[in-house]
Amino acid sequence: MSIHVRYFASLRETMGRIEERLSPEGIVTVSDVWKVVHQGEAFPDHLLCAVNMAYAKPDSPVQDGDEVAFFPFVTGG
Amino acid sequence: MEIQLSETPFDPYALLRDFEREPDHLRAHFGAASLFIGTMRDFNEGEAVESLWLEHYPRMTEHELQRIAQEVQQSAPFKRGLIVHRVGHIVPGETIVLIGTWSCHRAEAITATSRMIEALKHRAPFWKKEQRGTKSHWVESNTSGSGINVASKPVKT
Q1: Radius of gyration of chain B, Cα coordinates, nearest whole angstrom
Q2: Which of A61, B42, B45, B80 is most deeply buried (CB count within 10 A of its CB)?
Q3: Structurally, how many domains does chain B consist of?
Q4: H-run or E-run covering A10
Q5: Contact state of A76 with B59 under an 8 Å Cβ cutoff
Q6: Which domain holds residue B28?
Q7: ipTM score here?
Q8: B124-147 as b/e: b if 16+ CB within 10 A
Q9: What distance in Å separates residue A56's CA from the closest CA in chain B?
């Protein structure tokens, strides 16, 4: 199993990839997922996050098999 | 709540005609319908916009729109609801979003549609990328929906 991480819109372009899979080892929260991908950086205020397709917070729990998504503020409608 | 995401242009009026022909509408228990239709402008922030790319988060978009509809239903109970939203490549003049609610009385329908579009703009995972001339850029925030005071007092004449 693994944690499926997805990126959207401008963040996807900045990251240069749409998704990746991480080992769940040492990951407890959304913030931990971000830190693994960004060499320890804190989750920034200008982004949003979701776990299993529902809005989450940086301190929301993450489990093995979860889908975690990071993206900028939404602009639909 | 019926939710549709469309990769191709749609005629909101033809779609509404078809929707209102469905069996649920034949029982004539609706006293009011309220509609919002959002269309792509050919300008933004004082510059001409040639086209738009609308990205979304498949499945989370539908889930979030259903959550919004359920929340709105608590404060403004409506009988039927419809949301249609474009994704992909869009050009000026094309409809981006159609929201319709049907209820027994006008207050619920008008309130439900208004709350639904405001919530959609702030929560549904869609992102616009504008093409302006040879440059493209991601739109960073939506315009405020509060520019018009819909509850303003009548003007004395």
Answers
A1: 17
A2: B80
A3: 1
A4: helix A9-15
A5: no
A6: 2-138
A7: 0.96
A8: bbbbbbbbeeeeeebbeebeeeee
A9: 12
